[in-house]
Amino acid sequence: MRTISRWFQRNLLRIYALIAFTYLLIPVIYTIAFSFNNGGRSNLVWKSFTFDNWLNPCGAPQVCEALGNSIKIGFLATLFSTILGTMIAFAIGRHKFKGRSTTNLMIFLPMATPEIVLGASLLSLFLTLKVNPGFWPTVVAHVVFCISFVVVTVKARIASLDPRLEQAAMDLYANEFQTFRRVTLPLVAPGIAAAALLAFSLSFDDFIITNFNSGTMTTFPKFVYVSAARGIPPQANVIGSAMFIIALSIVILGQIVGRKRAVK
Amino acid sequence: MADKAALHGDLRLEKVTKSYGDFTAVNDLSLTIPEGSFFALLGPSGCGKTTTLRMVAGLEEPTQGKIFLGQNDITYTKPYQRPINTVFQNYALFPHLTIFENIAFGLRRRGIKDVKEPVEKALDLVELSHLAARKPTQLSGGQQQRIALARAIVNRPALLLLDEPLGALDLKLRRQMQIELKWIQKEVGITFVHVTHDQEEAMTMADTIAVMNEGEIEQLGSPADLYDNPKTAFVANFLGQSNLIKGTISGNDGDNHIVDLFGQKISLAKNRSHAVDNSIYAGIRPEKFRISRVATATSGNILSGGKIEDVSYIGVSTQYQVLMPWGQELMVFEQNDDGVAPFSVGEDVNISWEAGFTFGLRGDEDAEAGTEVNPEEIIEDDE
Questions:
Q1: In a domain, A171, yes or no
Q2: Among residues A134, A256, B134, B350, which one has the fewest Cβ atoms lying within 10 Å of its Cβ?
Q3: How far is B373 from chain A (nearest CA, A)?
Q4: Same domain, A124 and A160
Q5: pTM metric for this prediction
Q6: C-alpha dihedral over A247, A248, A251, A255, to 10 degrees?
């Protein structure tokens, strides 16, 4: 008895971690497993194993067009929100101006507003401006909510930056632009990169706001939602699994590179 | 850029004032720092010394007054337009660049293509050539300190500013770096302006020290001048320790004042007195005192009626607290070199000293000025 209880004491954390990870990963494993299901149009019950879905990911109607739209929107929304958000973060983090605290508060609003409200009000705004919902309104809508996250992420990085480094650069004959280019930007870059990744995943993932503002255009989340009514094709699982594997590979690669640098 | 090399000469501050709202950090400060000297700005934290340094570096603008380097007014020029480099308090090495690139930074910004040779020379000077490929975080504090120095010196500035450069090092390393910094200054011949709150550090390294307090310079001079003949109670207490005894000038004897200290007469050279009227503090450094048993004959100034209150044996010397008849405890440091048995607590003694060692301060001064230790600095030293 004592040896068993001791074994538990020693491995309690491991057991707990195992349970937690299982809980977190079951939906992912389910998605990956069913990407190999020869389930036909409605991929709900396991029938037989096949590589067909992976060999032909665009097999289901519209799935790759939807994916293409999502990637395009994600890319554009990331680009604009990262540039604008980084600039706002520098303004708030580095300069004192009238209305700074108000700006700071306003930046949080899109994060705090329920998505459904944000989506609906953006739609009514577009309609008032006589802009038809579609690709570009969706990009604009995505930039709106991505900016907040970019600002918060980049601002945190700027706040942790020692202002003396910039002073040292100026002291060492670097003018304002050179200081920004050679010292500030490289040091804030990891924060900007993290913000861009976050913006992309938020945009790629978004359904509610997109649903209001995209009109007839289909994005990947919209495609999945619409097809859920009649059964999601296994190609959706393939794309979902591929995204997961790509994201995971990027993280692992980042870890390896980071560790190699640390050893050097 | 070319005219930057021509910018050299003495550094002059003319009536420089820096205020932040109601708070005056530096008050009407005028100062000349001769070219090629090792100059220290010494004072407790908050005395305005770092603000002064930052104005010279161009990181702050004076509220009033002008700063000249040689003939050139540099009051409002940008930091990168001044031939002045700084060794920052926490070194401020660029964490994303290698040691080599850190040192090459200033050269590259000035458009110098061939940086290899000067950078290697600078690394040689601080004896860290083998670390060129490392990143700053992989270096110890002492190594980072030297790299910060190399990064500044490689530019051959007209003026090198050191902002508490040794503050983060432990005591042993600090002593070693003090000697090294002095040697490097002689080697490169650049004017060094060193800001510190550590009086021993300032005295070890600097040719000239300006003691600052509350935004103003209390006294300026060589370490020996400041120590032997302080002008104010603040300097007397901040640089080493002093016994300040309240008295009145009761007469004159040639070049000397006769000073009455609670009924006992001593003599004080007129040219060592900074008193403005008859009210005076007679100042004597603790190591200048001699203790003698009452029966023993002594020469020089004598104060009698003392009683040993406390004895601390600290190896090289013994420190005594001697209670005088007027209730003041005087501090006496005796070298343990003469074979006389140490005095013991409760013994009645006389205190004597060479008359020439006495200095006189204004009688309206606060005798405690400069003695209190800033709690912030205790924390710093503990690190």
A1: yes
A2: A256
A3: 27
A4: yes
A5: 0.77
A6: -160
